[in-house]
Design brief:
About 35% of the residues lie in helices and about 25% in strands. It is built from three helices and four strands; from the N terminus they run βαααβββ. The longest helix has 19 residues. The protein starts with 17 loop residues before the first strand and ends in a 6-residue tail after the last strand.
């Protein structure tokens, strides 16, 4: 017997402020059609939802510890989300120290 998937309500750990997408992420989202458009937008929105709940995605243990410290002290927060849809796609989600803005980037755009 297969159990139905149940959506879990995530409790926000932080305010993301204004959410921005880099020009390349914006173009990537706009270039898709049909099911792929839905898949891409879901990938971004789920990453943002997890990020706001204090789950940082697939970061190494050092960056995970830095985020936990930054969450408590007000530092910059970084999330990394990867999916496979034929090709591996990775997004970085960064929330500024003052929590006024969160930006979604591709790895090669992140500084």
């Amino acid at each position: 017997l297969v159990e139905p998937l149940v959506a879990r309500q995530l409790e926000p750990a932080l305010d993301l402020g204004t959410i921005y997408a880099s020009a390349e992420v914006d173009a990537w989202l706009r270039s898709a059609t049909g099911p792929e458009a839905f898949s891409r937008s879901t990938f971004v929105s789920e990453g943002l939802s997890w990020h706001s709940s204090g789950c940082w995605g697939d970061l190494d243990p050092i960056d995970l510890d830095r985020n936990d410290e930054s969450l408590a002290t007000g530092g910059r927060l970084i999330g990394r989300w990867t999916r496979s849809s034929g090709d591996w796609e990775t997004l970085w989600i960064v929330t500024d120290e003052d929590r006024t803005a969160t930006t979604v980037f591709f790895p090669h755009e992140f500084r």
